[in-house]
């Protein structure tokens, strides 16, 4: 009997205009000059995602140059509608053979690969829903099994992401505070 390992893809949501940050976060770099997009892709790949899709929107032409070669770019043409547009674009572009996706945000440059690996450490399938928590506070990344993609895409609106859907469906909560604090970087560069 052969056991197959589910394929998991990563999605980085990086389509917003970053109005609170003074510009698109997809263009941001850390103090060492490393693009946040590189950090996000590295965390997803290092944590166990076989492939990664980066969803761009605002200033997509400029941001595309900062996407690592091992990631696939998806452009959310309706990015101005908010985070929901990026999430729908990412789910729509996910590989057909993936059982689940790990979704993270570009403005989490401190996300370690170990956090992604912990989210993926328990068995998963197309029905899986998992959400990172930090001292009980929900955050990112989240794991969304294929069976939920259409419902998640239908449930998001504007800048409201999948949080309500995950809560209503009883997503498994995975505490990650021992690995990282889950803090996003919303301020100006």
Quick structural overview:
The chain is of the alpha/beta class. It has 6 helices and 7 strands, in the order βαβαβαβαββααβ.
Specify the CATH homologous superfamily.
Answer: Spore Coat Polysaccharide Biosynthesis Protein SpsA, Chain A
Category by helix and strand content: alpha/beta
Q: Rounded to an integer, what's the Rg over CA atoms?
A: 15 Å
Mean pLDDT: 93
The top-level CATH class is: Alpha Beta
CATH topology heading? Spore Coat Polysaccharide Biosynthesis Protein SpsA, Chain A
- The percentage of residues in β strands lies in 15-25%
Shape: globular
Q: How many domains, in number, for the residues? A: 1
Stretches with pLDDT under 50, minimum 5 residues: none
Order of helices and strands: EHEHEHEHEEHHE
Annotation field: number of helices: 6
The largest pleated sheet is described as: 7 strands, mixed
How would you sum up this structure, described in words?
The chain is of the alpha/beta class and 189 residues long. It has one domain: Spore Coat Polysaccharide Biosynthesis Protein SpsA, Chain A. It has helices spanning 36-47, 60-64, 83-93, 113-119, 149-155, 163-168, and strands at residues 8-14, 51-56, 71-75, 100-105, 129-134, 137-145, 172-175. Strands 3-2-1-4-6-5-7 form a seven-stranded mixed beta sheet, sandwiched between helices. It is globular and about 35 Å long. The relative contact order is 0.20. The mean pLDDT is 93.
